[in-house]
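Example record

The entry below shows one chain as it appears in the dataset: sequence first, then structure tokens.
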Amino acid sequence: MSGTVVLLRHGESQWNSLGKWTGWTDVDLTDAGVKEAQAMGEQLKDIHFDHVYTSKLQRAIHTAENVLKTQGQTDLPLSEVAAINERDYGDYTGKNKWEVKAEVGDEKFNAIRRNFDEPIPNGETLHMVYDRAVPWFKETVVPELEKGENVLLVGHGNSMRSLVKYIESISDDGISKFEMPLGMILEYTVDDNGKMTSRKELHVATGASKA
């Protein structure tokens, strides 16, 4: 019997609140982001996790800590994994997304944010994130799920989108239409290839959806 894997995007970060592309910049949560993490923990109180993996960025780590504290699972150690770090936004890092949108237009802006193979100057495509996140998921997480263990993954908009693409078998074009907003919780059971057999989607209230 498969365990459950839960995918979370971190709560609102300091740069989310400013509308900046963050990427690998290691900013922390806002007060609102902490509350979002606690609200996600409330939603997940019925699940006992056996493993928790976060990216190596503090906004994901602190989200996981607040989720577990709310759940009462404070003795569960976190494993920090570079494979689920956020996408490297290269030359766009630190730029205000809405100012860039005004400069490049809607079509280019949406391609930068969502497309699978849109090049980023000195950064990563979503395809590159997929190529580091999915092999790790298959090698590490799927065997734990096969044992009936429950796994929590706390990452970022793009690292979680890359995993959703694999788990749900979404096409390259289809993933451009999928967003992982703040406050979204995805629960899956999967087969022995890590492909979805069941899906549950939950949301918590947030100040805004800042992708």
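Notes for this example: The mean pLDDT is 95. The helical segments are 31-43, 58-71, 97-104, 106-114, 126-146, 157-167.
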